[in-house]
Amino acid sequence: MEILYDYELVTPSGYIFHSVYSVRKTESKTPISGTLYVGNPKRGQNEACTTISINYPDALKAYEVSNGRPLPINPKIASLILTKYYAACAENMNLPKGKGTKEMILSSLSFVKKLCPFVEEFDLNDASSKECDTGGPISLPYFYITQKWQTWYEGIFNAYLKPVSLYKEYRDALKTLQETTLEPFEIFKGRYLFGQSDEIKKTLNISYEKSKTVGEFFKTLYSDQKVNMTCMLIQPWIDRFMRDMKIDTYILYKKWYIHKKSIPVYNFKNKNNKLKIINKQTRRKTIW
């Protein structure tokens, strides 16, 4: 049996997100799992801006008792499955990039933290991307690393890898990359800028020749250019560069975690100043 609960999540800045919490229950009404869908940018379509899945411990214990073996699922870990940015994710006003996305994710995680106190961590695969102005999508982790030398989820949510030794290995790899001496620009150009315009090569070369290390190059590039321009300049080659530098191992192929202690507890309010079920259904064909 599946029950849908309709909520309005309101952030401290006043963004309102239409949210649906779907709960699967046994015939005895014991919750098995839940899925939180936050924001619906395209009316009538089965998608959400943020999706989180939860497994309930009582159901897993009941399975173990009935079958004599546990399921390989940890109910203390919920999964941040998907996050997309659209201006229309919020109900009452356009959602700005960056700050708005942060509030949307925080409100979603905070809702689960309040509703499901047994959840201690959220896992995620950090494969998010952003759109450069005219240069197509760029990996958000790589884009943020070139500016801050940490991912967006690290900077905003204190995300980490497990075990601690793996996270240390990742941080050491970034430090090594920062301090790596640059090759001559002709070698860099032949390896990463094949097919790019002469204008792009010339613009990159100006910052490149001012620098001795990879860290200095990116710092100089952001200093010489506006952020949006830098996005377009590095978008065509940053994936291959990070792959060659072995950073993709930690970003694309490892699971990241956010601890609940990094998530504030918001007071979600509707017009009656209470967190409550607005609407309840027992059957559905689509989420929205």
Protein topology:
Blueprint: E1 2-10, E2 16-25, E3 31-38, E4 50-55, H1 57-67, E5 77-83, H2 99-115, E6 121-124, E7 129-131, E8 137-139, H3 140-148, H4 152-157, E9 160-161, H5 164-179, H6 185-192, H7 198-209, H8 214-224, H9 227-234, H10 238-244, H11 248-252, E10 256-259, E11 280-281
Parallel strand pairs: 5-6
Antiparallel strand pairs: 1-2, 1-11, 2-3, 3-4, 4-5, 6-10, 7-8, 9-10
Helix pairs in contact: 7-8
Description of the structure:
The structure is a single chain. The chain has helices at 57-67, 99-115, 140-148, 152-157, 164-179, 185-192, 198-209, 214-224, 227-234, 238-244, 248-252, and strands spanning 2-10, 16-25, 31-38, 50-55, 77-83, 121-124, 129-131, 137-139, 160-161, 256-259, 280-281. The longest helix is centred in the middle third of the chain and has 17 residues, at 99-115. Helix 7 packs across helix 8 (214-224). The chain contains eleven helices and eleven strands. 38% of the residues lie in helices and 20% in strands. The model is unreliable at 271-278 and 282-288 (pLDDT under 50). With 288 residues, the chain is an alpha+beta fold. The chain folds into two domains: 1-125 and 256-288, no CATH class; 126-254, no CATH class. It has a nine-stranded mixed β-sheet with strand order 9-10-6-5-4-3-2-1-11. The protein has a two-stranded antiparallel sheet with strand order 7-8.
